[in-house]
Write a structure and sequence with these properties.
The chain has two domains: 46 residues, Winged helix-like DNA-binding domain superfamily/Winged helix DNA-binding domain (Arc Repressor Mutant, subunit A); 81 residues, Gyrase A, domain 2, CATH 3.30.1360.40. It starts with a helix and ends with a helix. It has a four-stranded antiparallel sheet with strand order 3-4-6-5. It has a two-stranded antiparallel sheet with strand order 1-2. Helices cover 51% and strands 23% of the residues. The protein is built from six helices and six strands; from the N terminus they run αααββαββαββα. The protein is α+β, with helices and mostly antiparallel strands.
Length: 150
C-alpha cells in the first residue's frame, strides 16, 4: 500500500503544482486513497520532497533530482553568459568570467558532477578547475566550450 501511495504521490507532483500537504491529501483522496496529514507529512519526508519555485511564481513539491536538474539548467545559462575565456595548463582549466560571476560559474561546474573534475576554486572573475587526469583536459575544455554555445 505504501509503495503504491508513494508512486501515486510522485505521479501527482509531476502532473500538478501541489503547493501544500492538504493539496496533496485532496489529490490522493480524489484517486481513492484516504490519508491523514501525518501520513502525508511522513511520505513527503520519506520521498525527500522539497518545495521549489513553480512557473507561476508560487511553490510546489518536487523531488530533489528534479530540483537539481532545474538548478543545473540555470547554472549552465549563467555559465554561458558569464564566461569570457577558457584555457588550460597541465591538469588545470582556467576559466575567466565577467567580474563578479566567478562563484556562479564555479557552482555551475560543480552542479555538473563530472567525474573527471577533482574540484573547483572560484574567485571574483576566475575559476580554476582541477582535473584528476591530465589526459582528460582537452575533452573537458571542449565540453566547456560547447556549454558556451547553448
Amino acid at each position: 500500500m505504501k509503495a503504491a501511495r508513494h508512486a501515486m504521490i510522485l505521479d501527482l507532483i509531476e502532473t500538478f503544482n501541489i503547493e501544500t500537504q492538504d493539496d496533496l491529501a485532496m489529490r490522493l483522496k480524489d484517486r481513492g486513497i484516504n490519508v491523514t496529514q501525518a501520513t502525508v507529512s511522513r511520505d513527503i519526508k520519506e520521498l525527500r520532497l522539497i518545495k521549489v519555485l513553480a512557473d507561476d511564481g508560487g511553490y510546489k513539491y518536487a523531488t530533489v533530482d528534479k530540483a537539481e536538474a532545474g538548478m543545473k539548467e540555470r547554472f549552465v545559462r549563467i555559465f554561458s553568459n558569464s564566461v569570457i575565456s577558457i584555457t588550460s595548463a597541465a591538469n588545470l582549466i582556467i576559466i575567466k568570467t565577467i567580474s563578479g560571476t566567478g562563484s556562479a560559474a564555479g557552482e555551475a561546474i560543480d552542479s555538473l558532477r563530472w567525474s573527471e573534475v577533482a574540484g573547483t576554486l572560484a574567485g571574483d572573475n576566475t575559476v580554476f578547475v582541477a582535473i584528476k587526469d591530465v589526459k582528460s583536459v582537452p575533452e573537458l575544455v571542449k565540453r566547456f566550450n560547447a556549454m558556451l554555445k547553448q
